[in-house]
Amino acid sequence: MSDQGLPSIDELEVSGKRVLVRCDLNVPLEDGAITDDLRVRSALPTLEGLLGRGARLAVCSHLGRPKGQVKDELRLTPVAERLSELFDRDVTAVRDVVGDEAKKACASGDDVVLLENLRFEPGEESNDPAFADALSSLADVYVNDAFGASHRAHASIVGPPERLPSAAGRLLVNEVTTLERLLVKPDHPYVAVLGGVKVSDKLDVIGNLVDRVNAMCIGGAMAFTLLVAQGRDVGRSLVEKDRVEDVKGILDEAGEKGVDIHIPTDVVAAEKPTEGALHETVPLEQIGNRMGVDIGPETTGDFATTILGARTVLWNGPMGIFEIPEYSAGTKGVATAIAEATVEGAFTVAGGGDSAAALAQFGMTDAVSHLSTGGGASLELLEGKELPGIAALRQASA
Ligand code: ADP
Ligand code: MG
């Protein structure tokens, strides 16, 4: 049993058994090639550990959104190839999830079987008991190492723990342990740096963190909804009008609790949110009829100073449209400050798919204490919710 009440993989009998391992191998693909293999590499410690203890594996994952249908471009073939390279051993990639090929391979002596994309089966997302039965019957025991999918009550996440001896994999335990450090007894000063596009996705996180942090730095498109809540003019920047009232409530609460809220004072104002559009850095008051596409240098400096004074930093969401180099300076500046804080001994965590992509783009993946592999899952955990996958494991062990 881990500190989090999760059944430990070390106490699971695996020698000579077929272990169904649910991983999150949902990698970004471009023209059939993996553009970032972080999730495949992150799955290795658990898989290697199990193989070292004499287990045979049935690895499974979803990829993209095939919506219950077989889509050739979403087959796990590229993942199987990368896994085989990283492992330096054969991977038997089967072309179905619970069909004859899968059954045959799982009953064979093959060490590593990779089942086909779980979401080719409609029963995966609908959590169909018959599909959960079929999946569980391929193996003797189950390990959930798919942190990034554990906020979904899908069949492969919540089904097997009811049917097989089950445990949490290394990555899952590591993610939960690390993220819980941001909620339980974090070192202060504690700063949350939030950005990205949708306030509505992150309101609950902000609400749950207001009680815990000393300061929040808010950039990205999300900052404009806050600025509107404060009665400021933001030109044609992205604003979620129906969230302005909620944001006002959170700002009031932050004020009462003495949380310092840092918001942009200058921005990169562009005619259009596209590469090569006419743009300049201006104080917010001069945004005119343009769109804010990045935080300006004054704001970046203010955020950096706040970050450098922190002992704990949570970062979720880019400060601007970082995918376009001209609008990436704010995000890069914040990432650099977080990297420096890490070197100075602060505990720093980055989460969110696009924040991870930004770090990868800057070659800074190793610059934080922890880079979460789960976007939605990390947000839900930080909202204070119990993830269905984690609940299922805890119940199985109870
Ligand atoms: P994460 O995946 O890290 O949680 P989000 O998905 O919330 O982040 O947001 C990422 C997206 O936000 C990026 O694609 C980025 O281009 C966009 N973005 C950030 N700032 C702005 C802005 N000022 N205007 C429009 N889009 C923005
Ligand atoms: Mg995202």
Describe the structure.
This protein is α/β, with parallel strands linked by helices. It folds into 2 domains: 174 residues, Rossmann fold, CATH 3.40.50; 186 residues, Rossmann fold. Helices cover 37% and strands 16% of the residues. The protein has 15 helices and 17 strands. The protein has a 6-stranded parallel sheet, with helices on both faces. A 6-stranded parallel sheet has the order 11-10-9-15-16-17, sandwiched between helices. A 3-stranded antiparallel sheet has the order 13-12-14. Helix 11 packs parallel to helix 12. The radius of gyration is 22 Å and the shape is elongated. The structure holds adenosine-5'-diphosphate (ADP) and magnesium ion. Magnesium ion binds next to helix 13.
Low-pLDDT windows of residues: none
In the CATH scheme, the class of the largest domain would be: Alpha Beta
Q: Helical element count?
A: 15
The helix content, as a percent range, equals 25-40%
Task: Give the topology.
Elements: E1 18-22, E2 29-30, E3 33-34, H1 38-52, E4 56-60, H2 77-87, E5 92-93, H3 100-107, E6 112-114, H4 122-125, H5 129-136, E7 141-144, H6 155-158, E8 166-168, H7 170-181, E9 190-194, H8 199-209, E10 215-218, H9 222-229, H10 244-257, E11 260-262, E12 266-270, E13 279-283, E14 291-295, H11 297-308, E15 312-316, H12 329-343, E16 347-351, H13 353-361, E17 370-371, H14 375-382, H15 388-397
Parallel strand pairs: 1-4, 1-7, 4-6, 5-6, 7-8, 9-10, 9-15, 10-11, 15-16, 16-17
Antiparallel strand pairs: 2-3, 12-13, 12-14
Helix pairs in contact: 1-2, 9-10, 11-12
The structure holds adenosine-5'-diphosphate (ADP) and magnesium ion (MG).
Magnesium ion binds at residues 352-354, 375.
